[in-house]
Write a structure and sequence with these properties.
The protein is α+β, with helices and mostly antiparallel strands. Helices cover about 35% and strands about 20% of the residues. It has three domains: about 300 residues, no CATH class; about 120 residues, no CATH class; about 60 residues, Arc Repressor Mutant, subunit A, CATH 1.10.10. Helix 1 crosses helix 4 and helix 2 runs antiparallel to helix 3. The chain binds adenosine-5'-diphosphate and magnesium ion (MG). The site of magnesium ion has 2 residues, from loops.
Length: about 500
């Protein structure tokens, strides 16, 4: 259990995250303008009449974005609402030309209801983090204050881009239920899990640096061992894992100090100050906005049929967590290896292609990928489309690696020769591993009588070492193996060499 020491004892931290991810889609949630937002695009070139709220413009719901939300909902094991509604959250700000944000407020069923994800908890065991809901809403525009000394400008390219807001759940009625985030590290692991699922499903790039993932962080504290929930503060708009962790820690300590000196926590909205890692009040309770939510009269209730949910379920790819278990259970891979091979879906696809229908390949493919291939990222195309020479680099394909490990297990080449072939490929040798082996005459020597003859020669040439070995210096075994391998130009099958040597040396 993560605790923070106060003057009067230990405190626990209770954390609730509201995570916004930008949904991948061609057009915006309620307009046909391009949603391919990025900061290098000229201002206001991707904002249409609907986005800038010209009188008489009506929103039309982008059904693809709804599909994306459903897909994500299924990815977090959630209930999909058969009926949900859009409402207007009203506030005035120049980045919001409508004067309201269309969202799915908390008092109505959101498109995605109760769900959960599993993370590794601080005690090293799997921990469920409950999710209350995920809802669709519009993003706002961007104000630019640094273009002109006295004027500010508004860029509405991002206005109306689709956001999915994912809110974690606190079981207030059931305080024993500790399926919530309770440390800065768990907050990071939860966010990474959300990112992994969003990316694997193609729902969002979920990239904090690029702004396609942001989080509001709710923090409260309580004395260690108690299970009531105390008043919290919300730190707005966090865009880095590192800052989120420092902000939680600072905010928790700030609250502990107040409580220990007899004060009370006010439900304030906080800002995080990057410079010194502190939090400070952005809006106090008295300044809290009244959004005067009301159902958007321009939009029908969102009705989702069972058929639609099933259709989407059938197109869902395997999620990284399931891929990892498959690698561990079916192929016997170590947990670390399985994790490396599922860092992105492209990597696991590459691995799956190389293994093909031969599970016996899996372990060596995994070893080769992790210890050799990953060291040369310029020599493979993880999207698996190209082969041969690309930009002067020899691209190693899943088929190349599959052939290489098959040649080893068929005893056509030994590990040393495989490594040589691999290096030749890195150096730009075209042709499959087998063609390269043929071209350079790399063939493993497996003929036992031929190997035996060479061993005899080696032993006769090294009589003093043989005597030392026989009188107990068994560490010399490697010396003999090395000498035999050298005598065969590295071609001998090391297994056969070992076996005959053992017999001869007694
Ligand atoms: P709001 O409507 O103010 O945004 P919500 O009820 O939607 O509040 O909760 C927002 C987030 O705050 C949720 O993730 C929720 O779990 C979390 N939260 C609620 N109460 C607490 C608390 N006492 N301590 C920490 N987080 C909390
Ligand atoms: Mg909120």
């Amino acid at each position: 259990m993560f605790t923070i020491k106060g003057k009067s004892g230990d405190w626990e931290v209770v954390i609730g995250l509201e995570t916004h991810i930008e949904v991948l889609s061609n057009s915006k949630i309620f307009s046909g303008a391009s949603a391919n937002y990025n900061p290098t695009i000229a201002p206001n070139t991707q904002a249409c009449m609907v986005d800038v709220a010209m009188p008489g413009m009506l929103p039309v719901l982008n059904e693809y974005c709804v599909d994306q939300a459903i897909k994500f909902g299924l990815g977090i094991n959630a209930e999909i609402s058969r009926i949900s509604r859009f409402a207007r959250k009203q506030y005035f700000y120049p980045d919001l030309p409508q004067g309201y944000q269309i969202s799915q407020p908390a008092d109505q069923p959101p498109v995605v209801g109760r769900g959960w994800v599993e993370i590794i908890g601080d005690d090293g065991n799997p921990k469920k983090i409950l999710i209350e809901r995920a809802h669709l809403e519009q993003d706002a525009g961007k104000l630019k204050h640094d273009v002109h000394p006295t004027k500010s400008f508004a860029d509405y390219n991002r206005t109306g881009v689709t956001l999915l807001e994912i809110v974690t759940f606190l079981d207030v009625k059931n305080p024993e239920n500790n399926s919530f985030i309770s440390s800065p590290d768990e907050a990071e692991r939860y966010l990474r899990k959300i990112r992994e699922i969003a990316r694997a499903l193609g729902v969002s790039k979920a990239n904090m640096e690029e702004g396609s993932m942001r989080a509001d962080v709710n923090v409260s504290v309580r004395r260690a061992g108690t299970n009531t929930f105390n008043e919290r503060c919300e730190i707005k708009n966090m865009v880095s894992f590192k800052f989120i962790k420092t902000a939680i820690e600072y905010e928790a300590k700030r609250q502990i100090e107040i409580l220990e000196s007899g004060g009370t926590i006010e439900r304030n909205t906080m800002r995080y100050n990057q410079g010194d890692g502190t939090t400070s009040v952005l809006r106090s309770k008295e300044d809290a906005l009244d959004y005067r939510y009301f159902p958007d009269p321009d939009l029908l209730p969102l009705v989702i049929t069972d058929d639609r949910i099933e259709r989407i379920r059938r197109t869902m790819p395997e999620l990284p967590e399931a891929t990892r278990s498959r690698y561990i259970e079916k192929y016997g891979l170590a947990e670390y290896d399985a994790a490396r091979l599922t860092e992105t879906t492209d990597i696991s696809k590459w691995f799956d292609t190389a293994v093909g229908d031969k599970p016996e390949r899996a372990k060596s493919i995994a070893n080769w990928m992790i210890s050799e291939l990953f060291a040369h990222p310029e020599n493979y195309d993880i999207e698996n489309e190209k082969s041969g020479m690309v930009d002067g680099m020899r691209i190693i394909t899943p088929a190349d690696l599959a052939e290489l490990v098959d040649m080893i297990s068929a005893n056509d080449i030994n590990g040393k020769q495989a490594k040589d072939i691999f290096i030749k490929m890195l150096d730009g040798e075209i042709g499959t591993p087998r063609e390269i082996a043929d071209k350079f005459g790399m063939k493993q020597m497996t003929d036992a009588s031929a190997i035996e003859k060479i061993i005899d020669d080696v032993l006769t040439a090294n009589t003093s070492q043989v005597e030392q070995y026989k009188s107990g210096k068994v560490g010399l075994f490697g010396f003999f193996v090395g000498a035999v391998m050298r005598a065969t130009g590295g071609k001998a099958n090391p297994g056969v060499v070992n076996e005959i040597l053992k017999k001869k040396l007694g």
